Amino acid sequence: MHDTAMMSGALFGKVYGKEGMKVLDVGGLDVNGSLRKPFELLLKIKYTSLDIEEHPSVDVVMKPGDVFPFPDESFDLIVSTSCFEHDPCFWMTFREMGRIIKKGGYIYVNAPSNGPYHEHPGDNWRFYSDAGQALAYWSGKTLDGKSYPVKVEETFHILPPPGGFWIDFVSVWKRVDEKEENIRLSNEFKMKYGPLRKALTEANLRTQGIIYVQ
């Protein structure tokens, strides 16, 4: 996990979390860092790590695309950092995240918009400014009689520090009752400063509301 991804994930917990909450880290295998310490030790939030590989840092192991082994509305927060680019079926993963997040709970995803090929075990996707709303629309679709509506609370990109190259796509969703009908957000919404983006800016990270990667 690179530095901006670590800082953003930890600040999400500080901004949106409260002591005593439960958080699930999807793709939580410790690769050059983990969010376990900031959530569990610093914020006193009960942390569970889920991944496709067995490792001492992983609590629950499952295959990509499988149903998560948790009941509906099990977690107050769900995070996924530097994972979705490797997930062969991230849209199914996101829908499961929508199922197990509590009503009023928050989902956080940080994934790259650019950068070199980095296999773990594969490297499949990159995410741009409209990805957050597209996932919200998908999660709200009724399939087999069920839907899991979420609403984008804020979405933006973190630009790389001098000498760096990763541009991080960041989005935060809230579990709601009303399905999204639009497949993209307005440019005005994408430019707004939500609480996490404000916190990152105050921490001197450069953020951008809309970005087009060549």
TrEMBL record:
CDD domains: AdoMet_MTases (cd02440). Residues 58-109 form the Methyltransferase type domain. This is Methyltransferase type 11 domain-containing protein. InterPro entries: Methyltransf_11, SAM-dependent_MTases_sf. It comes from viral metagenome. It holds the Pfam family Methyltransf_11.
